[in-house]
Amino acid sequence: MTLGPVMIDLVGTEITPDEKKMLQHPNTGGVILFTRNFESIDQLENLTSQIHAVRNPPLLISVDHEGGRVQRFHEGFTRIPAMACFGKLYKQDKEKAKDLAEKCGWLMASECLAVGIDFSFAPVLDMGHGISGVIGDRAFGSTADIISTLAHEFMRGMKRAGMAATGKHFPGHGSVKEDSHLAHPVDKRSLADITMEDIIPFERMIDYGLAAVMPAHVIYPQVDTNAAGYSAIWLQQILRKRLGFEGVIFSDDLSMEAAAPAGNFIDRANAALNAGCDMVLVCNHTDAAKEVLEGLGDYNNPASSMRLIRMHGHKHHGRKQLQKTQEWKEAAALIMPLSDTPELELDV
């Protein structure tokens, strides 16, 4: 059995009998975890083991564990700072900022891999212009050079730990005020303007070997009337052909408000897959996930399946072994004090 094109979530800390059937559905390819799925480290390890045991090859297990406002698990995990802290440090000490960003990427990835999570949807490559509240301090900075440099280091750390990186939100969510979870953001800039600024971090990260990309639920009307995640122009003509990206394309959550204009959930899934996504996320809506799994029928895309299989994590240490290493102790001691962002759980 290959990995299907749908990533779903779970309602609690254990797999219910109904959810197990969904996980066994041939159109399922992965699971995304949220804070509600975490009770303790032991429980989380047990949950990921059960998910991986459901299928062969194992389903992908993902999480949004960027740091700052978006860190799903806390107890037993190092608190990761918002990425903006590295951008601020970069203006004072470039080499120190780069070193700490690399260590932070390694630390985040190592801790997630150690408990059975394949990858975190990170890093954010959006521009931090202070326009978008939902991006805010999740961005490394406000210039393409700072973002590209620090995101590259963060990705290098993730890769060293054994985790593939996902850049988001292509081609850039940082220049629109509206939150795509709640509204329908529209960026009226020209393709030339976007290419000269927002796309640069994605372009450079692709050159550095970025494994996956998540497009934004944002409409750029001067390029296409469809949001980027539903746009063959953005995903196939620009991302694949012009930028030469050969990795995985994940849709953003199809239950977000900005995803609604594409129609019902089946329409949204088909629109995203037809535009060029390899896997679609359906979160926080069990009935919708079931609808998509059944509605896609005998979906088969061998190229996507081959790309997705590369997202499996390669952990080097179990959790207890990891925390005994000198590298973990030193990295945690350096990264922990950087975190000064108030906790705010967002399903983003």
Helical amount among residues, as a percent range?
25-40%
* Element string (H = helix, E = strand): EHEHEEEHHEHEHHEHEHEHHHH
Quote the distance from N terminus to C terminus: 30 Å
CATH homologous superfamily designation = Glycoside hydrolase, family 3, N-terminal domain
Return the CATH architecture: Alpha-Beta Barrel
Largest β-sheet summary: 8 strands, parallel
Oligomer category:
single chain
Q: What is the CA-atom radius of gyration, in angstroms?
A: 19 Å
- For the biggest β-sheet, the strand order reads 6-3-2-1-10-9-8-7
Overview of the molecule:
Residues 341-348 have low confidence and may be disordered. The protein is globular and about 50 Å long. Strand 9 (248-253), helix 9 (265-275) and strand 10 form a beta-alpha-beta unit. It has one domain: TIM Barrel (Alpha-Beta Barrel). The protein has 348 residues and is α/β, with parallel strands linked by helices. The strands form two sheets. Strands 6-3-2-1-10-9-8-7 form an eight-stranded parallel β-sheet. A two-stranded antiparallel sheet has the order 4-5. The longest helix is centred in the N-terminal third of the chain and has 21 residues, at 94-114. It contains 13 helices and ten strands.
Secondary structure elements and pairings:
Elements: E1 6-8, H1 17-24, E2 28-33, H2 41-54, E3 60-63, E4 65-67, E5 70-71, H3 84-90, H4 94-114, E6 119-120, H5 144-161, E7 166-170, H6 191-196, H7 199-208, E8 212-215, H8 232-242, E9 248-253, H9 265-275, E10 279-281, H10 286-295, H11 302-309, H12 319-322, H13 326-335
Parallel strand pairs: 1-2, 1-10, 2-3, 3-6, 7-8, 8-9, 9-10
Antiparallel strand pairs: 4-5
